[in-house]
Design a protein that fits this description.
β1 and β2 (32-33) form a beta hairpin. Mean pLDDT is 74; it is low at 10-20. The protein is of the alpha+beta class. It has helices at residues 4-21, 77-81, 83-86, 109-120; strands at residues 25-27, 32-33, 40-44, 71-74, 97-99.
Length: 134
């Protein structure tokens, strides 16, 4: 006999999986649901997609407070690592940006490990060096 508490847990987990798989993230650039290999700005509805870093990145700081809501992007690893060089393409240099991760981190795997290690010490990998580069 199945216990009622286990049924409730199973139904909750199933509902969460359905919400995650519902395609609530739309690639604004292509107009299609978020999928691997199709890069661009992501429109988030409901639950957040998996992110590369829990903190937003701002490529160029302004004198005043950061303007606007954060943007979400699914981009190739090279553009994520060198965001300050690519932010103009997306008109997002002064906006807070989260980078969405699809499936496995792939090329970002070692980079993510460094980011996690640096976060433990309070230093972000995604911050410009003395020359303004990331």
């Amino acid at each position: 006999m199945v216990k009622p508490g286990r049924v409730a847990i199973a139904l909750t987990m199933w509902a969460a999986a359905q919400a995650h798989a519902s395609g609530s993230w739309l690639n604004v650039t292509s107009g299609a649901p978020l999928r691997p290999g199709v890069y661009g700005r992501i429109q988030v509805r409901g639950a957040l997609p998996p992110l590369i870093s829990p903190r937003p990145v701002v490529a160029r700081q302004t004198l005043g407070p950061v303007q606007g809501d954060p943007l979400y992007f699914y981009l190739p690893a090279g553009q994520v690592r060198k965001w300050a060089l690519f932010c103009r393409r997306y008109d997002a240099c002064e906006r807070p940006v989260y980078f969405v991760r699809m499936d496995s981190p792939g090329k970002l795997g070692r980079w993510n490990a460094r980011e996690r290690a640096l976060n433990r010490h309070g230093t972000a990998l995604l911050s410009p060096d003395a020359g303004g580069h990331f």
